[in-house]
Amino acid sequence: MENWYLVMCKPRQEERAKANLTNQGIEAFYPKLTTEKLVKGRRTVKQLALFPNYLFVRLKLNSGNFSAVKNTRGIGGFVSYGASYQVVPTSLIEQLQSKCSQTVESTMPKAGDVVSVNNDSFKSIQAIYKEPDGDMRSILLINLLNKQIEMSVDNKDIES
């Protein structure tokens, strides 16, 4: 019978450990979260580990190669509970695999969100976020003289 076990990785080495385990024929999984952020005014999409420094491996209880996993580059060791290694329910792994394949978390404003504009022309002016305008700019609706005007603004000048 095969079980999933929780393994601790060395800092920021989840991808390396997973690749090394896969090369040895050992099934490994670590859930990743896709996020969208503003970095230096540019919209970027990154994948981050949902549980940093941890991954899951699938091994047979009696014939699994536990020592090979422990000695793999990027692995710190098994997470244990007393004298036995921590077993993770298969149903939990299946849920994580299905959720992580469709999850995108965004720190960017969404259409209709109220934001604040802070640049040379406008100081702390409230606006409504409309849509992105490329990677570096966004279109906002600003209320000027009781009329909403569309304006393209640098992303670095927008505060949520």
Automatic annotation (TrEMBL):
GO terms for biological process: DNA-templated transcription elongation. It comes from Pseudoalteromonas haloplanktis. Gene3D superfamilies: NusG, N-terminal domain. Belongs to the RfaH family. Enhances distal genes transcription elongation in a specialized subset of operons that encode extracytoplasmic components. GO terms for molecular function: DNA binding; transcription antitermination factor activity, DNA binding. SUPFAM superfamilies: N-utilization substance G protein NusG, N-terminal domain. This is Transcription antitermination protein RfaH. Signal peptide: none annotated. InterPro entries: NGN-like_dom, NGN_dom_sf, NusG-like, Transcription_antiterm_RfaH. It holds the Pfam family NusG. One of its GO terms (cellular component) is cytosol. Residues 1-100 form the NusG-like N-terminal domain. Interacts with both the nontemplate DNA and the RNA polymerase (RNAP). Keywords: DNA-binding, Transcription, Transcription antitermination, Transcription regulation.
